[in-house]
Amino acid sequence: MINRLLEHYPTAYTSKTPIQTKGTICFWLEDGQQYIGIPIEDLTPEETELLKSLFPTFHEETTLNDTYQEKRWYDFLLNNEKEAKMPASIENGVFRIIQFAVSKKGINTQDLKEALKNMFAFDVTVIFLNDYHGFIVEEKQQLNTTEDDFHASLLAFENDFYVPISLYIGEFKNVYKLKNFFQYEQKLFQFARSHISASLLFTLKNILPVYLIHTLPIEIRKQLFMSIFDVFRDDRELWKTVKKYLENYTNTSLTSKQLFIHRNSLQYRIEKFEEKTNLNLKMFTDAMFAYYACLDFEYIDEN
To answer: For the chain, how many helices (H) and strands (E)?
Structure first.
């Protein structure tokens, strides 16, 4: 795909990071795990809309970042040139980046910015990459927004705008380390939006296991988890049960309540799984192996 696009657009370039050049749109190519930047003047309006549909993660020059702080953060985090230095006012600060993506266009960008800022108790900087995709810079405080707070904000956002929004909560980093780490977090968010459809709130903790599994070729993954996949294909409810049981730290009471089944029924299902797979879910290594299989089963089974 990349080679064909480069042949069609000779002035285009590729990059592992979203280098924003004036007059250029950068599209993220999932298959090649890199961006392709194409000059806007080389694209017809029809081609632009088609590429945006094919590659929904893209960066383009925007006038939405109109304040000095927004422009400085944009340049510092996304511009790879030497002159893109950190703002002097934040040299000793600790920050995290919360990435956001709205599922479709149609929301007034100023309303979107205001809704995003309302998710936080302190002032934050909202930077747009396009009309419905960008990131928020939050400085570390004594009381920062928690994951539970973000879950509540996601529900409120969808109720207000009738459109879901997905968030990636980044890790707090000293500003000197923030830029490079943000590049990895962008890849993780892009991966999550493509492969983890069951969630709208992502963190390093809940993405990394799935991401690491997907670095292996699909045929190897099939071989590694073959015996467990066979069990799950025979009984898909068992897959849901084991996954929920492991996510609840093997807590039988909590899991049975969430699945609306009796404790004895849950225990029977777990014993059935352990007997067929020769795994002991009370052992950490066995439980971890089984959970990796649970995470990968639905994707493998569809492919």
So the answer is: 13, 10
